[in-house]
Specification:
The protein has 12 helices and 11 strands. It has 297 residues and is an alpha/beta fold. The protein has one domain: Rossmann fold (3-Layer(aba) Sandwich). Helix 6 packs across helix 8.
């Protein structure tokens, strides 16, 4: 088996962890860190909010770690007790010893984490690659998913633009310097978003993303966000919220929204102007308000 994903050196791991910890220090809502052991490795978990409130499990975008949810915590913790999972095999504080290379393995991993946390049933919120994972989990385990919020979904109903995929490979995997990675991330949004990415609280989160992408050795086969058959999810009765940026860089935003409406006729699908794939930064207040209202139902 290929070696688990890992940082390329102790120095790069320390730099990444420092940015991760800084993001937590800047959080408006207090956050607790813990580790959960599973057959896939050690899952790092961030927890926030009142434990008497209904549980919410958050799955992050690829390589962002759970810290991407920290700026949204005031809205999320207003209605939920929040568990944020660092995906094993991805950049973050989790450590992997087995692969999440298929939907079945993703489902098994989430099952194990929820079992260890003592969470029988929860709402899910997810971004980008996390939406693909959360969707597969909801289809496989509708009895454990109270409701499902998808923010800036990746794959699921349409493939990524070929031009985006090629640039990601060249700038992130082939060149892979902090400079080329930063330029690639800047291409995801307008000037206003680029400024927000360099301003607290997003600054350490985005610097952490850049550092992680440049310093992380990926030795595992990764889950790929490919087209899903939403029939099982539509039949399950799980309430679904989908928030998509009209200016998506990975997909055609309007076409994706229409495909979600067709595949999930009862879902609440919101197409947001002036927002791309980093919609949680582009339109943070709108996303926070819509997700909070959905989770409060």
């Amino acid at each position: 088996m290929a070696r688990p994903s890992a940082f390329k050196s102790e120095e790069t791991r320390a730099a990444y962890y420092s940015l991760y910890d800084e993001a937590i220090r800047l959080s408006e809502v207090p956050v607790k860190e813990s580790d959960v052991e599973t057959s896939f490795g050690t899952t790092h978990v961030l927890t926030a909010g009142d434990s008497s409130k209904p549980p919410l499990v958050a799955l992050h975008a690829m390589s962002t770690s759970s810290t991407m949810w920290l700026p949204l915590l005031p809205a999320l913790t207003a209605v939920r007790h929040v568990w944020m999972l660092d995906t094993v095999g991805d950049v973050g504080k989790s450590t992997a010893k087995s692969v999440l290379s298929s939907p079945v393995r993703v489902v098994d991993w989430i099952d194990e984490v929820l079992d260890r946390l003592g969470v029988e049933r929860a709402a899910l919120v997810a971004a980008s690659l996390g939406t693909w994972m959360a969707t597969h989990y909801a289809m496989a385990r509708p009895d454990r998913v109270e409701r499902l919020a998808l923010v800036g979904p990746a794959g699921i109903v349409s493939p990524q633009h070929l031009s985006w995929t090629l640039r990601a490979i060249v700038d992130v995997r082939v060149r892979g310097t902090p400079q080329t990675i930063e330029a690639f991330l800047d291409s995801h949004g307008p000037a206003r978003t680029r400024q927000l990415m360099r301003t607290d609280p997003w600054r350490p989160i985005m610097q952490q993303l850049i550092t992680g992408l440049a310093a992380f050795r990926r030795g595992l086969r990764e889950p790929r966000p490919v087209h899903c058959n939403l029939g099982r999810l539509a039949d399950s009765g799980v309430p679904v919220l989908v928030i998509i940026g009209r200016d998506e860089t990975l997909h055609d935003g309007a076409r994706m929204a229409e495909r979600f409406r067709q595949g999930l006729p009862t879902a609440q699908v919101i197409l947001v102007n002036d927002a791309g794939h980093f919609i949680f930064i582009d339109q943070q207040e709108l996303v926070a308000d819509e997700v909070r209202a959905f989770l409060a139902k």
